[in-house]
Amino acid sequence: GAVVSQHPSRVICKSGTSVKIECRSLDFQATTMFWYRQFPKKSLMLMATSNEGSKATYEQGVEKDKFLINHASLTLSTLTVTSAHPEDSSFYICSAAWTGGPEAFFGQGTRLTVV
Amino acid sequence: GEDVEQSLFLSVREGDSSVINCTYTDSSSTYLYWYKQEPGAGLQLLTYIFSNMDMKQDQRLTVLLNKKDKHLSLRIADTQTGDSAIYFCAERLSNAGKSTFGDGTTLTVKP
Are A104 and B45 in contact (CB under 8 A)? Predict the structure, then answer.
């Protein structure tokens, strides 16, 4: 299958700082990228959908000013957690898909810990 | 709205077959997926089935789809200890592109 690289895999940051997570599709052009948050022993919660060159569409209840998503190219999307707080600590996963294709490929996830 | 449900746990002996079940509510689902997640890792796409298919087989994996009952299953033949993981069922609607996931089934394979 196609490869999606997510970086960093782990990050620890201080409360009040911002953290950027990158999601790259390495061998295909991702017209759409999805950002998920996964709580312990829970399913994935979709946070937002981003299409290249457009503003991200956020799910209900997700603060767009806190979770900034940029999809500047067909191979890169970034999620910036601004003014992070301990309750933002979680596992964040991106996935990438192309228009009309059935598959969505996932990155390896980023474990964010805010102290 | 969309809803996907799975049983939370399954335990089998090595060499047996595992069957993980999933039900979904939205009849307009175009694709249905099975993903595998190992501890601390992202999701690995195992297989998917188009909604007009009844069955799909890929090596040790067999997916059965009963569209009338909105029931999806994943059968793993000759289950190995390396198959221990969380398995997620997901549906993708044709008009949105986003997927809805079940809560995951934790498969434990005992030697």
Answer: yes
